[in-house]
Amino acid sequence: MPDTTEHFLLFLALVAGIILLAWLWHSLMRTCEAANGADWGGRWLNRLDGLNRIFCRRIHHLISEPLNLPAAGGALVASNHVSGLDPLLLIAASPRPLRFLIAREEYDRWWLRWLLRRIGCIPVERTRNPRSAFEAARKALKHGEVVALFPHGRIHLDHHEPLPLKRGIALLSSLTGAPIHPVRIEGIRAQGMTVAAVFVPSRACLLSFAPLHCAGLEDEHCLEELWDRLALSGEERRHDNPHRRRRNGKPPNDGETVQ
């Protein structure tokens, strides 16, 4: 008889545990759905969007108004790049899905590739001709999607030597008429890191600027304006703008390469 009672109690505990886990899972899904801020075209992707927004606000104390993107039509989001956390922050602040240009070596990580493909990331061949990525981004903009990229091309911090921006973003804007929405990321504690930055709590802040329209502008002029918005604020910093130096016929600073 005692054995039977014991087994019955264990069975009740197991059932109670399953019910509790199911309730917690259901609550988590409802919370993620409530936090979802962009329609990614699938229920599970929308839940992941909500989970990411909760994560960025609770763990990284993200302070940001929603990115000032048009309700429809192609647009470019350009941001400074300080850590591996940056894409998550931009997604958490965006009212629309973002299609990121991402290095092929990052895109091909087996444990991430399925997700990166589902959310429409565009792989860039950095060691070979990146034309296929450029064409994919151009088509996405023509189809009314939002393409996000880091025009420095790699992680670049404020204390690093001034670095010119990659010309591709100006070309994309000029060819498609898509406005560039500059966003500056600040407050990341693990600057310069990739994976670690995702887990080290920060006081993240996104600063959004008025959109740039590059149609009709010289590429160098467009990049000059974008560089100013993404750089650390301050009049002295404006003199470091490598695109302004080129337009004024001045030699590059030490460490600056001509692209």
Q: What do you see in this structure?
A:
This protein is of the alpha/beta class and 259 residues long. The protein folds into 2 domains: 2-52; 60-247, no CATH class. The chain is 45% helix and 11% strand. It is built from 11 helices and 6 strands. The chain has helices at residues 2-35, 43-58, 86-93, 104-107, 113-118, 131-142, 168-176, 195-199, 219-230, 235-238, 242-247; strands at residues 75-79, 98-103, 122-124, 146-149, 180-186, 205-208. It has a 6-stranded mixed beta sheet, with helices on both faces. The protein is elongated. Mean pLDDT is 90; it is low at 254-259.
Say how many strands there are.
6
Find the structural class using helix and strand composition: alpha/beta
The percent range for strand residues is 5-15%
Strand order of the largest sheet: 3-2-4-1-5-6
Radius of gyration: 22 Å
Mean pLDDT: 90
Characterize the main sheet.
6 strands, mixed
Total number of helical segments?
11
Unreliable sequence segments: 254-259
Helix content: 40-55%
| Count of domain modules | 2
What is the rounded distance between the termini?
A: 83 Å
